[in-house]
Design brief:
The chain starts with 7 loop residues before the first strand and ends with a strand. 46% of the residues lie in helices and 13% in strands. It is α/β, with parallel strands linked by helices and 300 residues long. Helix 2 links the parallel strand 2 and strand 3. It has 10 helices and 10 strands.
């Protein structure tokens, strides 16, 4: 069991990129961190890279497939027996839901989308490939995976005197990016009546229209990644309302050089990880239920 005063964190999808750097920065702040990854071998390799920083005494590895409830329950059991509570959960695990055909074109498409500029269908199709299976997996990991982890670890977070949940999101999920008059945009904007059931309904409809090839004609974004992050932002608000004593926020770390951006980003992983870490370490009484673009509060 953990000693009094010690704080414990879990970071999902932490074997590389922003996730690994979040682990390093939290451990540097004296927090005991459980580094999790779906692939055990990669997770243990990531742990070794931290030994060079002299932080290995503060970091442990546990395998976690976020989309698997049994795997999440196994992690919860491990934390309970090892520490008896959890203070910080950073939901970082995520996939793009696309395959990249042309890196240069992809960079242009991504930059235009981040700047909320239009992207032609032709450019999009030449830059990336998105199948129904990829779209389904994207929602399964980015949204439902985060939800499975939250539900498994919630009893341990409730034992903390400063519980924090940080959902790593993206400006690609902001509602401004949804077409005008979109039904999903309307539902996600209605904070007072937003529920997990409504988010499920949105994701089910998205997949149905995706399969039919009728997303655009029904007023939907065509990117599963954007929809998964809009759902994550909605879930952040639902959770913050449900657990008023917690501090629960989502954050876009910015356009970071990582695998998910095909290393086309302009920020380093250190710069990208700094904003989720700042939210993880906010003092008690800090605002909850917000979306941040790096360090600034932004609109959902």
């Amino acid at each position: 069991m953990g000693e009094d005063g010690e704080r414990y964190a879990v970071v999902t999808g932490a074997n590389k990129g922003i996730g690994l750097e979040i682990v390093r920065q939290l451990a540097s702040a004296g927090i005991k961190v459980v580094l999790t990854a779906r692939n055990e071998e990669r997770g243990l390799q990531a742990l070794q890279t931290l030994q060079a920083s002299g932080l290995s005494h503060l970091v442990l590895f546990h395998q976690l497939d976020v989309a698997d409830a049994t795997s999440a329950a196994s992690l919860a059991h491990f934390i309970k027996s090892k520490f008896g509570k959890l203070d910080i959960l950073v939901n970082n695990a995520g996939i793009s839901g696309t395959g990249i055909k042309n890196t240069d074109l992809f960079q242009g498409v991504l930059q235009n989308r981040l700047a909320n500029l239009g992207v032609s269908k032709d450019d999009r199709e030449r830059a990336i490939t998105q199948t129904y299976e990829l779209a389904e997996e994207c929602l399964k990991i980015n949204y439902y995976g985060a939800k499975i982890v939250v539900e498994s670890l919630m009893p341990l977070l409730q034992l903390s005197d400063s519980p924090r949940i940080v959902n790593v999101s993206s400006t690609l999920g902001i509602l401004e990016n949804f077409p005008k008059g979109s039904w999903a945009k309307r539902v996600l904007s209605d904070v007072d009546n937003l529920s997990e059931e409504k988010v499920d309904e949105i994701l089910n409809k998205f997949l149905r229209y995706f399969q039919e090839g009728s997303l655009e004609s029904n007023g939907w974004p065509t990117s599963a990644y954007s929809v998964s992050k809009a759902a994550m932002n909605g879930y952040t608000r639902i959770l913050a309302k449900k657990y008023p004593s917690f501090c629960i926020n989502s954050v876009c770390p910015g356009y970071v050089k990582t695998d998910i951006t095909a290393n086309t980003g302009i920020l380093t992983v250190e710069e990208g990880a700094a904003s989720p870490v700042r939210l993880a370490l906010l003092p008690n009484g800090s605002p909850s239920g917000l979306f941040y673009y790096r360090t600034d509060v932004a609109s959902f």
